[in-house]
């Protein structure tokens, strides 16, 4: 009986150890879905990036500068941004598990690299987690000063903000292909001023540039307050990038979880007005095993589909980048047409005796009386949903006097052609052609194989051998 007894004792010891240390979850699905173990050569996209940069600098930037577009939307595209990796942004109230989720995705728990987490609001900084040869922390001031990084435009939010910006370089395979940004939790009933920097503007900057936006909620404390409402207003137009995550789902009973799921949609409905509701993932993103007697299979499936989503963004990064630049060009073009229209109306209304300032104030106060916005819609293929709001132009012309602009018809040169023609060519031909050239490389023409029966898939000419 002795051997039996001894084995009994060993299992007792194991049980005791297990009780003190929570069971860790298996990570194999993470590695498989995100293809972390594959030794695949990086796609050679430098040629495409160079062409993209050239189109931007020669066809879009001249008009952008001439009509000071970045003062309207504070959106200037730097070279660092054209070449940057896809960015995944984590937003949501405090203590919903944003930092824990990043720790989990990168497997940083119990390593010196892990992000600090806890029940109190812990992340008060905007933390950018990126790839580097070894672990190191970079001050926000240094990140903003480095023009090769895509964060140099953040300098305009002031020193107070840069102190709240921090970069962490981690040698991790996933970060070679994507950058994570962890944001301070949204704290309800708290005034903007207390943060000491324009929190909403900073959020807007990141939202405009994110390829994927995870809005994380904790089902045990669900309240949609003011700061969150503001945030969702800022997310308008980015609905296709938003993924809503109901985290810590294994901390509730099924029935309770269903109620929370309904309540979440109910409270978000007025904030997101699109026909296609954003995708909601219900799971628990941290390294500990799911609570017993909860829907482990469902949670695991949800987690895998979220990881597939993330992988998709990495695979499509070039397409997204080109689409982003094209979207930007469309906005710049509309802005130029509008300023041109304001200027034309101003010139028409001015007589020898009129007071220029009064004439222009009339136009800015009530642009509809002069059909400024309507005429843009009538004569150009502009969607009414893309028009900026009228108020923005009051501020814009408050800083930039109308007389400091030139008409579009005067912005042409014998050699360089007209600014407007160049941007239109970029929107309708150059950028779509560039997009097509990637498509060819990614999805080889299967038809030709069917015809010739070549058997193997054609070589991808955009990948290194």
From TrEMBL:
InterPro entries xref list: Dynamin_N, EHD_N, G_DYNAMIN_dom, P-loop_NTPase, TRAFAC_Dynamin-like_GTPase
Membrane topology summary: Peripheral membrane protein
Residues spanning the membrane: none
GO cellular component: sarcoplasmic reticulum lumen; sarcoplasmic reticulum membrane
Source organism, top-level taxon: Eukaryota
UniProtKB keywords: Glycoprotein, Membrane, Sarcoplasmic reticulum, Signal
Subcellular location: Sarcoplasmic reticulum lumen; Sarcoplasmic reticulum membrane
Keyword Lyase: no
Domain Dynamin-type G: 82-323
Database matches in PROSITE patterns: G_DYNAMIN_2
GO molecular function: GTP binding
PANTHER family: SARCALUMENIN, TRANSMEMBRANE GTPASE FZO
UniProt name for this protein: Sarcalumenin
Organism: Malurus cyaneus samueli
């Amino acid at each position: 009986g002795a051997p039996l007894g001894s084995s009994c004792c060993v299992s007792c010891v194991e049980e005791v150890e297990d009780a003190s240390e929570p069971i860790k979850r298996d990570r194999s699905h993470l590695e498989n879905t995100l293809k972390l173990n594959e030794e695949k050569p990086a796609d050679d996209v430098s040629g495409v990036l160079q062409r993209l940069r050239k189109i931007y600098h020669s066809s879009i930037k001249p008009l952008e500068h001439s009509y000071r577009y970045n003062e309207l939307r504070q959106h200037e595209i730097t070279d660092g941004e054209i070449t940057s990796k896809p960015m995944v942004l984590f937003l949501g109230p405090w203590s919903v598990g944003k930092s824990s989720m990043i720790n989990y995705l990168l497997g940083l728990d119990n390593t010196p690299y892990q992000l600090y987490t806890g029940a109190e609001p812990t992340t008060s900084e905007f933390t950018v987690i990126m790839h580097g040869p070894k672990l190191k922390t970079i001050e926000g001031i240094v990140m903003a000063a480095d023009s090769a990084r895509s964060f140099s435009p953040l300098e305009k939010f002031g020193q107070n903000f840069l102190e709240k910006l921090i970069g962490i370089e981690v040698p991790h395979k996933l970060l070679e292909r994507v950058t994570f940004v962890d944001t301070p939790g949204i704290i309800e009933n708290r005034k903007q001023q207390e943060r000491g920097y324009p929190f909403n503007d900073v959020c807007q900057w990141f939202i405009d540039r994110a390829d994927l936006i995870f809005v994380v909620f904790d089902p045990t404390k669900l309240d949609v307050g003011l700061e969150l409402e503001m945030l969702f207003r800022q997310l308008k137009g980015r609905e296709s990038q938003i993924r809503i995550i109901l985290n810590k789902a294994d901390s509730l009973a099924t029935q309770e979880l269903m109620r929370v799921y309904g309540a979440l949609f109910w409270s978000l409905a007025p904030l997101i007005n699109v026909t296609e509701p954003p995708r909601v993932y219900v799971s628990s993103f941290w390294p500990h095993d799911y609570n017993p007697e909860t829907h482990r299979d469902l949670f695991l499936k949800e987690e895998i589909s979220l990881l597939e989503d993330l992988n998709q963004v990495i695979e499509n990064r070039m397409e997204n980048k080109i689409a982003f630049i094209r979207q930007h060009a469309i906005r710049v073009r509309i802005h130029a047409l509008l300023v041109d229209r304001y200027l034309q109306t101003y010139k028409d209304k001015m007589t020898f005796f009129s007071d220029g300032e009064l004439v222009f104030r009339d136009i800015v106060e009530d642009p509809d009386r002069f059909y400024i916005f309507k005429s843009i819609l009538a004569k150009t293929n502009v969607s009414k949903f893309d028009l900026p709001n009228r108020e923005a132009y009051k501020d814009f012309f408050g800083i930039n006097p109308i007389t400091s602009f030139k008409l579009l018809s005067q912005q042409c040169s014998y050699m360089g052609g007209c600014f407007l023609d160049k941007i239109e060519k970029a929107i309708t031909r150059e950028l779509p052609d560039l997009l097509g050239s990637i498509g060819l490389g990614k999805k080889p023409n299967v038809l030709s194989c069917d015809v010739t029966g070549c058997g193997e898939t054609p070589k991808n000419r955009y990948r290194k051998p």
